[in-house]
Each structure stands twice: as structure tokens, then as C-alpha cells.
Amino acid sequence: MLALLFLLSHLCVVHTCRTGTLQECHDAPFVPGHNLAGEGFDVVTLQHKGAYVLDFQTYLTPNNTCTICENQLQGNQLQKLPLSVLDWRSFSNCKQELTSAILSTATSVAESATSVIENDWSIGLELGDLVNMNVGGSHSNAVEFAMSQSRVDKSAFTSHQLSCAHYSYRVPRSPPFSSEFLKHVQSLPAQFTNETQPLYHRFVETYGTHNIQKVRLGGRLTRLTSIRSCLATVNGHSASKAKDCINTGLSIGLGYVDPSFTTSNCKSLLQNEDSQTQSQLSYLNHVTEVLGGNKWRGEVSLQKNDSVEFRSWLQTLKEIPDVVSYSLVPLHELVADPTVRRNVKDIVRQYLRDNAVPKEQPSQQCTGKPNLSPECCPLSPKKGRLQVTINDAVLESRHDPFGEPDPYVKMWLELGQDQRHFHQTHYIKNNANPKWDIDYDLGHVEAQYDLVFQVWDKDLKYDDHVGTCRTWLTEGLTRDLMEF
């Protein structure tokens, strides 16, 4: 019974709102984040537009009263609600634990970025033809980062996130609009022509594609890391290992676990140095997004407790919250005139189509192939499949004073005293211009070996050595002309 009574009293504290007098309404500040649902929102970039669709400054009713609430998170201070805010709640949902995921493609990054949208934002926009396209978040900061990394090299991604929610509210079904939004809507012509389209484009540029209908406010830290898959693989690291090690590193930096908790393998990975190919490249790159609170950038050491600024940031979330999750309503549904509403819907749909990008498919898997990981990355550096074609030669008759030469070629790989993969062509009788055109597949070899060729002239007793040359192994198709 005691536990039940405690729970009920806790819930009652959350709901303590009442009607305030005119003086109380003037004196009380707004609740934190009171206007964060009022801005237009662009579902393509996942950004607030900075232009207000709804009126979040009016708080007095016609009776000169307002809604006053006790904010339990700020010492039960009396704070007022705008008329556009309904069902305001204060609470503490701050587990302070990291969630992590492996994201194999930019498409997965987009899906992760839009997971904070609590409803289906596409309802009412008739976008069935874009089912195989990325639309929501397709040009968000996270996806732009992922796409830029994928253009450089085969990449996988890990996401690490921590969030705290302290407040929630929703807006009315028929909310009061900002005066500027109403003026803009009323200025839109009913005719939708080539001449009037720019006016509608400007409307979308100003207010975006949606309006926020319901919000949860607090703070969120997101670290998105790109992993250069093949460079990480040759250094003995995988995306799964990177996710776990970064999770441990962040837990150390944020003060959740002791630095001794990390392993030598994780220390090696987090040094982020290519020790195998000496390429001077980093196989881990990241971007960090911080929402809410003071101006903390979200960067922490992954090797020591670096949590002072993080703890300070947590304390400021109750006073300076941001939107951590939300529900959306298409912007056109807020337009009263049916003709203009249809035009706004059409221009928003066109904007979404123009910014849609094809969904990436998971990369091809390599199984049963020597020196290749399942992600088709080389398991060892400077190693690849070597195929050699011996074409022809031009020999001078001086190499054989008794007539035309009978040439053949010897070939092998050499590194110091180590010689391997010996091959020899057949000899061609009495021919100073022999053509062999023979292909040899030497399989998977290490690039530090020299490829050695020797031309010989077959004789009855002792074969004559005509000449030797050697070449470095390099990636790609190479055609060498060797002279003796």
C-alpha cells in the first residue's frame, strides 16, 4: 500500500495545473520550451525552419485568465502555458545509458535519424510511388555525413545515443496561428501556374513541410561514427567491435565506468591509426549532435573520465530543453481554403520527390573467397590476386650464332632469398619474334614480392640466358615492356 500511495503522489505532482489570475499570468514565466512546437519543420532535413506557424505567445483567455502550472523540476515554480499548449507534463525520464546500433548504409542512417518521429509523417501526402526512395531525413546532417563518407570508401556506421526527456505537450486540433503565417497563406493565389509556383516554393522554403503536433522535450547526445570498412578490416577491426569499443569509450568519458574497464584491443582500435598499410588515414570518423542544454559540443575523451561538461549539460536540460521526439502533421492540413490547401499539398509533394534518393541495398557479401572478409574487404594488406600474361618478344640473332633462337620465358616471385610460383613457357623453335600469349593465374600474392622474368634460348647442350628483368607489383592493369 505504501508503494501505491507514493506512486499516486508522484503522479499528482506532475499534473498540478490550474487557472491563474490576471496578475499571476503576467508575473509567471512561460514553461521551458513552450514555443518549440510552433515552428515549421522540414522532414527532408529534419530541421526547424525558424518561422512560426502557430501562435505561442498568446496566453490570456477572453476572461483574462490563463493556465498556471507548478514545475516540479524547477522548485515547483509557477509557470504559464500559451493557449496553443495542451496536456503539458513535467517528469524525469533520464536513464543516462547509451543505446548503440550498427547502420550498414546511408539508408539505415536515414531510418535511424527519423526514428524520433513518433507517427507516420507521410499520411495524407500520397507518396506511395516513393516506397523505394529515402525521403524523410534524406538530406539531414547525419545522412549527408554518411553519404560523404560512402563516396570516399566502403563504409559502415555506428550510432551511439543518450537522451533525457523532462516535458511533453501537444497542440490543439484547431490551433491559433501566428499572424505572419496567416498573412502568408492569405497571399497565396488560388491559381497554381508556372507564374505562381515560385510563391508556393517560397512558402515551403519558409515553413517547411510539416508542423509539430506533439513533443517530448529534454536533451539528446548522438555520436555517428563512420568506419572505413576495408581499412579497419586489414587492421583487424570490425564494425561490431568498433560499436562495442566506442560504447565503452563513451561510457568512460561520460563517467559511467572506470577507465580500467577497457581492453587492450579497444585501446588499439580507438587509437584510430593505420598500423598495417601506413596510409596516414583514419578508419574512424565521427560527427556529434547535441540537442538541448547549454552550448556543450558533446566531445569527450574515450580513454579517461571527461564528464564535467557533460554533467553540467544534464543539469541545464530542465531549463533549456529541445525537442527529442515528436509527432508531425502535414503543413497543408493547416490551410483552411481548399484550393490553396491542395496547392500547398502539391508543392510539398513535389519538394519531397525532388529530394528523394534511392534506398541503398546492403553491399554484396563475399563468402568462400581467400583473403576477403564477408564484406569483400582484403583480410591482409598489400595482397591481391595476380594474373600475368606473357605476350611476345623481339630477339636479335646475335643471341644464337648458329641460327635463329629457340626462346622461352621463366617467371617467378622473389623476395630476398624467397622464390616461389615458378612458371615456364614452352620454347618456340627458330623464331626471333616469338608470340606466346599465355595467361598465368598466380592466385593471391603479397605485393612486396618482385615479379621476375628471364628469357632463355634453348640449345642442345646448355641453354643460353638472354636477359633478366623484374617489376614491382602494383594494383590494377599494368603493361610492361622489358629490354635487355
TrEMBL record:
Gene3D superfamilies in alphabetical order: C2 domain (2.60.40.150)
N-terminal signal peptide: 1-16
Record-linked PROSITE patterns: C2, MACPF_2
Keyword Signal: yes
Protein name in the entry: Perforin-1-like
Domain of life: Eukaryota
Gene Ontology cellular component list: membrane
Keyword entries, A-Z: Signal
InterPro entries in the record: C2_dom, C2_domain_sf, MACPF, Perforin-1_pore-forming
C2 domain residues: 366-484
Annotated GO biological process: defense response to virus; immunological synapse formation; T cell mediated cytotoxicity
MACPF domain residues: 21-367
An annotated Gene Ontology molecular function: wide pore channel activity
